[in-house]
Amino acid sequence: MTAGPRMNGAEALVNTLADQGVEVCFANPGTSEMHFLAALENPRMKSVLCLFEGVCTGAADGWYRMKDKPASTLLHLGPGLANGLANIHNAKRASIGMVNIVGEHSASHLKYDPPLTSDIEGLARPLSHWVRRAESARSIAWDTATAVAKASEHPGQIATLILPGDTAWQDAGERVLPVAPVPVRRAPDQARIDEVAKVLRSGEPALLILANKATRGRALELAGRIAAGTGCRLGSQFFTARIERGAGRVPIERIPYAVAPGSAFLKDFKHLITAETREPVAFFAYPDKPSLLKAPGTLVHGLVDADEDSELAFEMLIDALGLRDTAPLIQQRIETPVPQGALNPISIAHAIAAAIPENCIVVDESLTTGRESMGLTMGALPHDLINNMGGSIGYGTPVATGASMACPDRRTFCMVGDGSAMYTIQSLWTQAREQLPVTTIIYANHQYAILKAEYANMGAGTEIGPQAMAMIDIDNPRIDWVAMGTSMGVPSKRVTTAEDFHKALTDSVRADGPVLIEVLLK
């Protein structure tokens, strides 16, 4: 244990966060958090104002995806936490580490049931791995260090610390901290390694499905050696937290989103081998369609559990297969010509493939228009791809904000549909305030186009009636995205052709700060 100088509870909290390696706080404060706000004057902690709590929690998600270390959020009481829960859900499904600081009334005030009183623990617990209410100023440093340690585990964890106002302003005494544990990733079981090695030696068609830490770094390179040496294919779920991809990287095939093409993709595999993920499952239940996408008789083998070390598992598997000298599969560079003419999913994908700069971060929330994009950008310059693991809409622009904060020397492309963008459009304001190099690409088809497809998939009817269509159409009134971005300080433009879209993308790469491009689809 270590001790430091005396300070109030809020100062002890911020200093402990900084001591434990937390560099940034994405904040939307209220009255009960004023002492925490004062403590953020600490030069070791970057504080970032977000105009909606869902932007705070989404930005913390994006930070972790690029840094592999947790950020903190500051949320105002139960309603503030509730506003941030959708992106906490997305973060939890993506195995993100995050420390949420939630303000609370002082203990002496709670007994009067003031209007903002709520069950904060009850709100936090379903989407948090660890929840604690600070009982006194003297416990805050210990509580904070424990929260950061929990968030830093593998896989990443959601830690929520509730901060009553009186514990923030009272004297914290000597700051006492637990000895921080070193995060350890468990080694996989040797029997599982041997079983999978036997499967791969059999020559039967096999797909190795990668997720979380297995889709990047040395783990991905080792997976590429396994694929090269055994003939198995490498795949990912349709949504993956972060993939390193493009020219010079090990290529991973993406299992299609819809049930029919997903099942068709998997039908010829005898074996599915999972690394930090589970077998592919349909996103929703549909009448007369299966929930599991594998063919009858396909065997599923768990190689790496979620809390285990993929890199170590692949090294063990390579040793078992005798592939130490095998070179990995590598994606070759594909020079995509600049497209011309009408905007459609293919020409849009070609424009992106031709424009992606080296080491770009690509955040994708464009399920309808962008569904073609990822297959056609495999040979682009090396980049990182981030997807929404939880399915709650409004993750794209906040995650892009946090990812760009984490990597300000890299351009971020954020692809988002117009319906999704309206959930957390406040992200643009934070991007402008922080002058973040984010290119926000709004696909403006003026409807929730994905719901049109789902209406048919669900068998709800052969034609969409006027009342149902009114719940899908967002064209009345039409949103002016150029005006929206400009109003928040982001230079914005509208494009109507593929060549203009490509030029706008390449121009944005040279910009000093954020840019918005409205891709007008009709």
Q: If you consult CATH, what is the topology of the largest domain?
A: Rossmann fold
At the first level of CATH, the class of the largest domain is Alpha Beta
Low-confidence stretches: none
Residue share in β-strands: 15-25%
Q: Strands of the largest sheet, in order across it?
A: 9-14-13-15-16-18-17
Describe the 3D structure.
The chain has 522 residues and is of the alpha/beta class. It has 3 domains: 9-169, Rossmann fold; 190-321, TPP-binding domain (Rossmann fold, 3-Layer(aba) Sandwich); 345-520, Thiamin diphosphate (ThDP)-binding fold, Pyr/PP domains (Rossmann fold, 3-Layer(aba) Sandwich), CATH 3.40.50.970. 36% of the residues lie in helices and 17% in strands. The strands form 3 sheets. The chain has a 7-stranded mixed β-sheet with strand order 9-14-13-15-16-18-17, with helices on both faces. Helix 14 runs parallel beside helix 16 (427-434). The longest helix has 17 residues, at 77-93. The radius of gyration is 24 Å and the shape is globular. The termini are far apart.
Question: Keywords, please?
Answer:
single chain; 522 residues; alpha/beta; Rossmann fold; seven-stranded mixed beta sheet; 20 helices; 36% helix
Give a quick precis of the structure.
It comes from Sphingomonas kyeonggiensis. The chain is an alpha/beta fold and 522 residues long. The chain is 36% helix and 17% strand.
